[in-house]
Amino acid sequence: MTPALRDELRQRKPFRSLEQEAHLNIVRTAAVLADAFEQMLKPAGITGAQYNVLRILRGAEGDGLCRNELRDRLLTRMPDVTRLLDRMEEAGLVARARDADDRRLVTTRITARGRRVVDELDAAVAKEHRRRLGHLDADQLGTLIELLTLIRQPE
Amino acid sequence: MTPALRDELRQRKPFRSLEQEAHLNIVRTAAVLADAFEQMLKPAGITGAQYNVLRILRGAEGDGLCRNELRDRLLTRMPDVTRLLDRMEEAGLVARARDADDRRLVTTRITARGRRVVDELDAAVAKEHRRRLGHLDADQLGTLIELLTLIRQPE
DNA sequence: TGACATTAGGTGTGATAACACCCATATTCC
DNA sequence: GGAATATGGGTGTTATCACACCTAATGTCA
């Protein structure tokens, strides 16, 4: 019965429910991980959202993805992907091209420069993951992933 | 061996490591929970950060807290608490008063109006927590909390 | 006691996110 | 074939975030 988060947040009163405690633990842990991750990205000159886009587009290979497909694959909700891509295009990380068949579509692809940026981050990313999560064994990580997956399933 | 997140994000390739999969699961789940929570708050006219401040100040009772103490207790990093409190003060949710002994300190307290807002949200918050996490039993929630706490401990 | 460091709070400014709305192209269906 | 709808993308505007910097009050110690 570890009141670790309560201590961390110097909270005087106990949590109102186990569900609340779980909720706060999840959000808090994600914030800690995401903040550290962003710090790690800083020298490369990109944000967490931009890294995510690059990671996704690298996975899509040369096919690229349209804006909405990309938005749906992003880890976090992001209502303004257009201008995120604007900035990345300006930085030379991605390139956009209007589809010839369906002229509504604009396909975004990763550029050589963008690919170089993610590739060069691979080692630091792996190191960061080990640093933050490496002290849990495979069983623990597996259990955690299972529980989080269960939470995202509606009931 | 459920590739649930991979499906969710329509990712073609497997995760690079169990650590990465865990990291992405945590951040993704937190985003889902936090987004739903913000939607739930919308009718009350406050944001997630503002709710957090009100929740903390309610817990502090009449003592109130100074800005930095409040910042440290927030769930997520928030470098500009001053202007967050500016907005909340303007909305009549909190009140600030400079300390008489140490004139550097400004103590922020919840107002009656702010207290009414959080109090009236209690039922909806509890319902939201049940809706999102109620399908896990106490053992599962306990295990989850334990693992997340472990992650936040440096090694 | 007076220079220096520390702590608390705030400001200026540019970048980013959020929300509502708009335009163009495709599709549906009468 | 043409109005209605759906889909994809973008824009305008405001609020908020993030970072670097600034000022006032307190603490430290030669």
Give your account of this protein's structure.
Chain A is mostly helical and 155 residues long. The first copy, chain A, has 7 helices and 3 strands. A 3-stranded antiparallel β-sheet of chain A has the order 1-3-2. The longest helix of chain A has 24 residues, at 18-41. The interface between A and B is large, with 65 and 65 residues. The structure holds a DNA duplex (30 and 30 nucleotides).
Give the secondary structure arrangement, pairings included:
2 copies of one chain form a homodimer.
Chain A: H1 4-8, H2 18-41, H3 48-59, E1 65-66, H4 67-73, H5 81-90, E2 94-98, E3 106-110, H6 112-133, H7 138-152
Antiparallel strand pairs in A: 1-3, 2-3
Helix pairs in contact in A: 2-6
Chain A binds a DNA duplex (30 and 30 nucleotides) through helix 5.
Shape of chain A: elongated
Care to count the β-strands of chain A?
A: 3
Average pLDDT metric of chain A = 92
Protein chain pair with the most extensive contact, residues per chain: A-B, 65 and 65 residues
List the total number of helices of chain A.
7
Question: Separation of termini of chain A?
Answer: 26 Å
